């Protein structure tokens, strides 16, 4: 499906997101990226204990995915030894992860991120997005973190809260307190959470982001609030200001059809049907696909 876009954007890998977080002093725990099984083995030793190995791909839903070549389940593995880290990385790097957000061919994995586990008390969802309807930034939060937010929105929409922000003020002390209250943070976790929310706002503005999604945002047993997994999207009209961020993009990991569409200022989304769609808006795209499905076809 091809769509004309008014605002273009691109995503980066999780390990790159955490590099950006560190520049804004956002708490992300301890993480080491590896580009080969031997580097993963060394990274495990550097972390000094059990680790979570996460495939670095341009797709969500990694935990529920599977590897096309081997059939091994999940793009997120927990390992207890350097040998396990090496084996797990070997199952990921150079292979293709299939998730709900990819086609049946999956997406290639060229790196893994090893993260030290955190002592989790609770997990939350936190995001700052640009609301196209109001042309203003909004915060979306939920106490249901660590799961697909789409599932929560479908089954329990009342568990998702939304705060429209003033684009100038952003997340100040008062707004950060409201967010903490919505998430049920208390005591030390509330104070740490308020600081993290304000840091994430500064990151959102400072990087020309259109999406800062943290899932899960984790409260630890000792009251820390940590960005365990983050997904960022950026407005690529700001490439002249954000040269380092735009230098992160791995074009070899992007569908060549997406690159071709990008050159014409369009978005390309790969679907598995056989009837192509060319649309100029999300609403029209959904309506067009509905009509095709109702008529017995499959959109592509």
Automatic annotation (TrEMBL):
Pathway assigned in UniProt: Carbohydrate metabolism; tricarboxylic acid cycle; succinate from succinyl-CoA (ligase route): step 1/1
Family annotation (Pfam families): ATP-grasp_2
Matches recorded under InterPro entries: ATP-grasp, ATP-grasp_succ-CoA_synth-type, ATP_grasp_subdomain_1, Succ-CoA_synthase_bsu_CS, Succinyl-CoA_synth-like
Record-linked PROSITE patterns: ATP_GRASP (PS50975), SUCCINYL_COA_LIG_3 (PS01217)
Cofactor: Mg(2+)
GO cellular component, as recorded: mitochondrion; succinate-CoA ligase complex
One Gene Ontology term of the molecular function aspect: metal ion binding
Limits of the ATP-grasp domain: 18-245
Alphabetically ordered keywords of this record: ATP-binding, Ligase, Magnesium, Metal-binding, Nucleotide-binding
Biological-process GO terms, alphabetical: succinyl-CoA metabolic process; tricarboxylic acid cycle
PANTHER family linked: SUCCINATE--COA LIGASE [GDP-FORMING] SUBUNIT BETA, MITOCHONDRIAL, SUCCINYL-COA SYNTHETASE BETA CHAIN
Stated name of the protein: ATP-grasp domain containing protein
Lineage: Eukaryota, Metazoa, Ecdysozoa, Arthropoda, Hexapoda
């Amino acid at each position: 499906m091809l769509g004309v876009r008014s605002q273009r954007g691109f995503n980066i890998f999780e390990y790159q997101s955490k590099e950006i977080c560190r520049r804004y002093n956002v708490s992300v725990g301890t993480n080491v990226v590896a580009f080969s099984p031997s580097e993963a083995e060394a990274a495990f030793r550097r972390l000094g204990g059990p680790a979570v190995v996460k495939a670095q791909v341009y797709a969500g839903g990694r935990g529920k995915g599977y590897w096309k070549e081997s059939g091994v389940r999940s793009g997120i593995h927990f390992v207890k030894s350097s040998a396990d880290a090496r084996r797990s990385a070997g199952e990921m790097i150079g292979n293709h992860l299939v998730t709900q957000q990819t086609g049946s061919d999956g997406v290639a994995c060229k790196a893994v991120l090893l993260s030290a586990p955190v002592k989790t008390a609770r997990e939350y969802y936190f995001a700052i997005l640009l609301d196209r309807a109001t042309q203003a930034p909004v915060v979306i939060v939920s106490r249901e973190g660590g799961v697909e937010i789409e599932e929560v929105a479908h089954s329990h929409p009342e568990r998702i809260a939304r705060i429209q922000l003033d684009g100038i003020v952003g997340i100040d002390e008062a707004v950060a307190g409201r967010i903490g209250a919505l998430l049920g943070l208390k005591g030390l976790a509330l104070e740490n959470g308020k600081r993290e929310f304000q840091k994430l706002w500064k990151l959102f503005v400072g990087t020309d982001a259109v999406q800062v999604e943290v899932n899960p945002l984790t409260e630890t047993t000792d009251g820390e609030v940590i960005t365990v997994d983050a997904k960022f999207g950026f407005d690529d009209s700001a490439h002249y200001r954000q040269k380092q961020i735009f230098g992160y993009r791995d074009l070899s990991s992007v569908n060549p059809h997406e690159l071709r569409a990008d050159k014409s200022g369009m978005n390309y989304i790969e679907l598995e049907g056989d009837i192509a769609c060319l649309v100029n808006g999300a609403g029209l795209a959904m309506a067009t696909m509905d009509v095709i499905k109702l008529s017995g076809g499959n959109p592509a």
